[in-house]
Amino acid sequence: MDRQLLLGVLASAWIVLAVQCFYAHRVWIITEHNRFITGIICVLAIASFGFGMITSGLMFHTRSPDVLFDTKWSQFAAFADALCDLVITGTVWWFLRPARTGNVRSKSRNYLKPLTQIFVNMGLFSCFVAVTMAVLYQVQNGQFYSAAPGALLGKTYLNSMMAVLNARKSIRERQRVSRSMTELPTIPTIH
């Protein structure tokens, strides 16, 4: 068995878990510490990680990369990933939508729109890759169709997190620049 394939599956499972935990923390903050929603996200993330570890263990035990495509565990991991992404994306959209009243961040609505858009787009894209992997797993019939989205899954999650972090940085920079341009300097008083 190729060690690189096994390491790739392990790395992908860890990356997906880390990114979903990052988003769970974001949801925790956005929802003002909603334990139920954050708990669902954490359970789905841990389930996906567990399924990935079971798949890796089977690959290591049998010394065959075919286990990756012959077992249902990788399909379960993909479905758990997709469900987790849908919960994260839906929650972020719901709590940051413009029509929401009582939003404590109403003063920064101009900055929330692009951030929400990036969150939703990246969440839907990673969900699409996970669903594609699970669906192709069903129709592959001895072929390895699910290998392509499977190889992209970890990279998609990592790029998703990096895009959100970069967007937050650029939005903060724009917010800082616009504040400094609108503030009038004060004239010191002489006593």
Features:
191 residues, mainly alpha, 6 helices
Task: List low-confidence stretches.
Answer: none
Number of strands: 0
Radius of gyration from the CA trace?
21 Å
| Termini gap | 82 Å
List the secondary-structure elements in sequence, H or E: HHHHHH
Q: How many DSSP H or I helices?
A: 6
* Strand percent estimate: under 5%
Q: Which class do the helix and strand fractions yield?
A: mainly alpha
Largest sheet: none
Please give a structural write-up.
By secondary structure, the protein is mostly helical. 79% of the residues lie in helices and 0% in strands. The protein has 6 helices and no strands. It starts with a helix and ends in a 9-residue tail after the last helix. Helix 1 runs antiparallel to helix 2, helix 1 packs parallel to helix 4 and helix 5 runs antiparallel to helix 6.
Provide a compact summary of the structure.
The chain has helices at about 5-30, 35-60, 65-70, 75-95, 110-140, 145-180. By secondary structure, it is mostly helical.
